[in-house]
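Reminder to self: tokens first, then the designed residues, so the page reads top to bottom the way the pipeline ran.
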């Protein structure tokens, strides 16, 4: 991790380190990157040798991309079981490091990434800010409302802190830790935003949302940035509306993950452009078939530049609606219309019906006596509800909520309530409002 920070800093100092990748990103053909990755995986990654051969993707030393859809989808469970076989045999000549997912919806996932992956991540970020949003992000004043545990690990903490402090100072970046925010923290963060006057603010969706609620509650003023970006969590419509109202500007949604990096970024016309030069993205239905424009499906991602441990047709656990190939903004990258949620957050019925978690969040958001909540589907007809109530909520009536839940989950649905003072976060700064433990 320390080496990774040094790479990032040296890249910023040199200025030209990502120039080649950036130019390629503008002109790139994702098919070329995909072909190169598949050949490398076939020759160097034990897990993929037979997989690609049996799928008919590699035949007589020829690559047949027409059979790409035959490659089995890679799951998190497979990565955990087959980790050692997913690592490229030539990774020793690559500058690699370990990374882990946030674990916001379960056990964190460990994997290897390398310098090429990191460089393309920077190229992708630069492309998004410069080409799609029209701002030079690298040295602009910016505030990150981020989780400290996403930036540092307990081991090497002193050295990493030193490297990150230098990096942040050089790039005019102020980090506000949203791992756990008290009202005193939020008051301090609002003052920091107003005094630092950032051109760019980027943060977790729900951290931005909570700051905005605090601003409204205290009738405070907060500075409007040139660019406001939500990332790391799904940006629900109600959360977007609150953030835009309080900050007085549009919020742009950026979609990606720790495992694969940048996937898509929202343009000024409201569509999310897929960074197909960084990740090859498919949207598929439950049978694995590609969906059509306007249809909802699973997000399947192939990392194009992490040769040390390539993820090919990886089920990232999200659902999205496919957008048009072309957008009125003029950018040539294909689009997603909307990220609709995580597959683990869709509640499932025995007949295969999916209930969007937004339905449950809508129920609790309308209850004025509830401070925070979490809804967990433990079985098809078994739901646990955890709530933290506001003061003077002794007369809280559960019956109306139970009626609404049973109206979609079935009259035989069993509900178990837990009333607590505070709901602890998951092992990440991301707030987990809903979770389904029922798999397909």
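Designed residues (440 positions):
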């Amino acid at each position: 991790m320390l080496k990774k920070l040094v790479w990032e800093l040296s890249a910023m100092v040199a200025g030209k380190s990502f120039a080649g990748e950036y130019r390629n990103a503008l002109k790139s053909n994702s098919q070329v990157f995909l072909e190169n990755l598949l050949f490398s995986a076939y020759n160097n990654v034990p897990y993929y040798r037979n997989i690609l051969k049996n799928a008919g993707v590699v035949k007589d030393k020829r690559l047949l991309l027409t059979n790409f859809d035959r490659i089995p989808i890679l799951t998190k469970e497979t990565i955990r079981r087959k980790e050692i076989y997913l690592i490229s045999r030539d990774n020793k000549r690559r500058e690699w490091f370990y990374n882990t997912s946030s674990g916001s919806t379960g056990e964190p996932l460990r994997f290897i990434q390398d310098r090429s992956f990191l460089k393309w991540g920077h190229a992708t970020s630069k492309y998004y800010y410069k080409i799609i949003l029209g701002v030079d992000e690298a040295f602009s004043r910016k505030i990150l409302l981020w989780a400290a545990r996403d930036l540092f690990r307990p081991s090497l903490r002193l050295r990493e802190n030193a490297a990150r402090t230098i990096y942040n100072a050089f790039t005019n970046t102020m980090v506000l830790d949203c791992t756990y925010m008290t009202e005193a923290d939020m008051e301090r963060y609002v003052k920091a935003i107003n005094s630092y006057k950032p051109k760019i603010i980027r943060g977790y969706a729900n951290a931005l949302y909570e700051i905005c609620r605090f601003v409204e509650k205290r009738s405070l003023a907060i500075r409007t940035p040139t660019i406001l970006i939500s990332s790391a969590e799904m940006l629900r419509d109600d959360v977007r509306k609150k953030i835009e109202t309080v900050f007085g500007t549009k919020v742009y949604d950026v979609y990606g993950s720790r495992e694969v990096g940048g996937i898509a970024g929202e343009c000024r016309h409201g569509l999310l452009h897929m960074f197909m030069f960084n990740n090859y993205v498919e949207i598929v239905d439950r049978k694995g078939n590609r969906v059509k424009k306007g249809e909802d499906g699973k997000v399947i991602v192939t990392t194009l530049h992490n040769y040390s441990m390539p993820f090919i047709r990886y089920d990232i656990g999200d659902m999205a609606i496919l957008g048009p190939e072309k957008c009125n903004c003029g950018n040539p990258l294909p689009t997603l219309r909307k990220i609709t949620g995580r597959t683990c957050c869709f509640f499932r019925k025995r007949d295969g019906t999916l209930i969007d978690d937004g339905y449950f969040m809508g129920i609790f958001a309308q209850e004025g006596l509830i401070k925070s909540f979490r809804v967990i589907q433990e079985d098809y007809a078994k739901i646990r509800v955890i709530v933290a109530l506001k003061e003077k909520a002794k007369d809280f009536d559960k019956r109306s909520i139970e009626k609404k839940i049973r109206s979609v989950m079935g009259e035989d649905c069993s509900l178990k309530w837990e009333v607590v003072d505070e709901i602890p976060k998951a092992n990440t700064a991301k707030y987990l409002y809903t979770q389904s433990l029922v798999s397909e």
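The domain at 346-436 is CATH 3.30.300.30 (GMP Synthetase; Chain A, domain 3).
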